[in-house]
Target: Ribulose-phosphate 3-epimerase
Amino acid sequence: TRDIVIAPSILAANFARLGEEVAAIDAAGADWIHCDVMDGHFVPNISFGADVIKAVRPFTTKTFDVHLMIAPVDAYLEGFAKAGADIITIHAEAGPHLDSSLQAIRALGKKAGVSLCPSTPEGTIEYVLDRLDLVLVMTVNPGFGGQAFLECQIPKIRRIRAMIGDRPIRLQVDGGITCHNAAAVVEAGADTLVAGSALFGGNIAAEYATNIAGLRMA
Ligand code: DX5
Ligand code: ZN
Model:
């Protein structure tokens, strides 16, 4: 059995007190902190950028897992590396040269991830597998938290697990993850679960530990 990483998405946190929210979700048992960066261009929503990540970085020592929904992304990689990202995930659909963007992330000393939108086939990453530390299968269309999980991504998770073989690559799922579908995505091969609304719920910090434990139990 693989070790499961739970990465709460701070997109669902209270932005007015983001530092405290990060500290609270860390104390509640988060393994990583998932940061959703949206540019209003690649996705139809704007969230936050490198300066916000830099500002909240001192509130935890946990891994900062930065999911960049930005196109074109190359000009921003260094800024997110300097802001304190540990893992930088870019979208396969976002740039003209995925291979070179992934090389740039590793050249900055960071772990490199690639994210696939629901309509993007897994073959897209076949020739970059050796440049990857993480593959993110989007189980909603990127842009918003709180959307319904797309069941049709389960076979893709299964196929990517087979493609990964014995490479040390984490297989992450993101979008609509709850205690009702966690077992199914893990059974298909996911080992890293992002969840926003299911964990941050009504932004009541006293409930975060119960929410994380519930997802882990599931
Ligand atoms: C969607 C983001 C997700 C999302 C997760 O574009 O990448 O990380 O915020 O939120 P929930 O768990 O609410 O779907
Ligand atoms: Zn995300």
About this structure: The CA atoms of residues 144 and 164 lie 28 Å apart. The radius of gyration is 16 Å. The chain has a mean pLDDT of 97.
